[in-house]
Write a structure and sequence with these properties.
single chain, about 180 residues, alpha+beta, six-stranded antiparallel β-sheet, 10 strands, about 25% helix, elongated
Length: about 180
């Protein structure tokens, strides 16, 4: 991603000092990002993107995606507490065709989801109930549910500290209509 940041900064004819001032980040940190020696957090990336008059999504898309291997350890990843007894952790860094999230606990069971592209829900531990297309599905450890793009659904944990892995095609990917495959 550093090369994308550097290209954009040079395109705008800005110095690291100007980007640092605009973003509120330090010159040494920005230099490390550009030289691939530091990886910015999601919030820092947004600040850099704002300073460069672009978006974090555009910077990630401009990064050289060639042959990437990226290990994410269990203690890594952006963790959000979406509810008092819930934890959401990204399992893939950056902006890719594949989006993977781990949910632990429960979340707002009234919240309805509808994703542009296909999604797979896999129950790692515990149990959940998913409502999709007017039907309720009870899933236990090891069960999975595949939802095609556009399906409205909601889910809730039926066992405390349930773990659900959600893998989806990124919303920025234009899915092919089944009749054109």
């Amino acid at each position: 991603m550093g090369s994308a940041v550097r290209r954009r900064r040079r395109q705008l004819e800005l110095t690291l000092a100007v980007v640092a001032e605009r973003s509120g980040l330090s010159v040494p940190f920005l230099s490390q990002v550009e030289n691939e020696r530091a990886r910015p957090s999601r919030r820092s990336l947004q600040r850099v993107a704002d300073a460069l008059l672009t978006t974090d999504v555009e910077l990630l898309a401009a990064a050289d995606p060639a042959c990437t291997v990226d290990l994410m350890r269990a203690e890594e990843g952006d963790v959000e507490n979406s509810a008092p007894d819930a934890r959401v952790r990204n399992l893939v860094r950056g902006h890719h065709q594949l989006h993977a999230i781990e949910f632990t606990g429960d979340h707002d069971e009234g919240r309805e989801f509808q994703h542009r592209n296909d999604e797979l829900m896999y129950v790692v531990g515990g149990a959940v109930e998913v409502e999709a297309e007017g039907r309720a599905y009870r899933l236990g450890r090891g069960d999975s549910l595949y939802l095609t793009g556009g399906v409205r659904h909601r889910w809730r944990a039926t066992v405390p500290d349930s773990q659900v892995l959600v893998v989806a095609v990124g919303d920025h990917i234009e899915a092919l209509d089944g009749s054109r495959r």
